[in-house]
Amino acid sequence: MTLAAAARYNLPAMPEARPERSRRARPEPPVRRGGPVRRGGSPADQPIRVLIAKPGLDGHDRGAKVVARALRDAGMEVIYTGIRQTPDMIAEAALQEDVDVIGLSILSGAHLELFPRVVQALKDRGIDPDDVLLFAGGIIPDDDIPRLKDLGFREVFRPGASTEEIIDYVRRWAARRGNGAPAERATGAP
To answer: What distance, in Å, lies between the first and last C-alpha atoms of the chain?
Structure first.
């Protein structure tokens, strides 16, 4: 907008070009057990770190975003990878972000094809599925739930599950593990 046009509409004039911002290189974090070392404090002082991912070609992510926002609002650090993630991309994000919890959302019906690949990609990066909480959500038939639990998924949240149910489950798991929310908060008691 020109200065004359800005004056005519009582608007501030916009500069013609924005100055370039310098991009500082981030130092590489130190690595442990396949993930970055968290700085300072005991594990109980650290917030629960959650990765929410949408594997495969499933493009519907409203539910995943609702869960991610609810977990964030409950005080957890949430990393949402977005849609159309490969198993390797999910595992690499889990490794780089040093997450405690991995939640996979799927509506496409490809869970029996993709979830084993995610678990294998985690193992390939030194992340033991017994060391993190794996949970799934979406359209998953009853007959498939035992197979997912055999892979290491501790819970499957289906349509109609409340965000409070998911938050409470994650907090209880973290309290038993010894990090994140204290046990009395995890159960909802003051």
So the answer is: 56
